[in-house]
Amino acid sequence: ASAAAAAIAHVRTWVFGTPVDDWTSMGVISDGSYGIGEGIYYSFPVTCSNGEYQIVEGLEISRFSRVRMDATQAELEEERNGVRDLL
To answer: What is the CATH number of domain 2-86?
Structure first.
């Protein structure tokens, strides 16, 4: 049930928007923000309004977080490359 609740909350925020001066995390396609390669679906800080999202820029990333983000990106790229021939 928690996956379903998360999906509902994700869509609700996407459709109805985030509160002013607030953001949420959503899995969206990377535009290169925060050093994540373009074209990878990745969790980013976003604001939402009118059914559109915008990646929040300029948040400080700790060294620990950077290491974990890079490891996650490498894992996602490996998974994508493993099924590339099936796409």
So the answer is: 3.90.110.10
For 17-50, how does the pLDDT look when each residue is reduced to its tens digit (9 = 90+)? 999 999 999 999 999 999 999 999 999 999 999 9
CA pair distance 87, 85, nearest whole angstrom:
6
The DSSP secondary-structure symbol of 3 reads H
| DSSP structural state of residue 1 | -
CB distance 1 to 28 below 8 Å: no
Domain ranges in the chain are: 2-86
Give the DSSP per-residue string, 13-68.
Answer: HHHH-PPTT--EEEEEE--SGGGPPTT-EEEEEEEEETTEEEEPP-----HHHHHH
Half-sphere exposure of 75 (CA within 13 A, CB side): 7
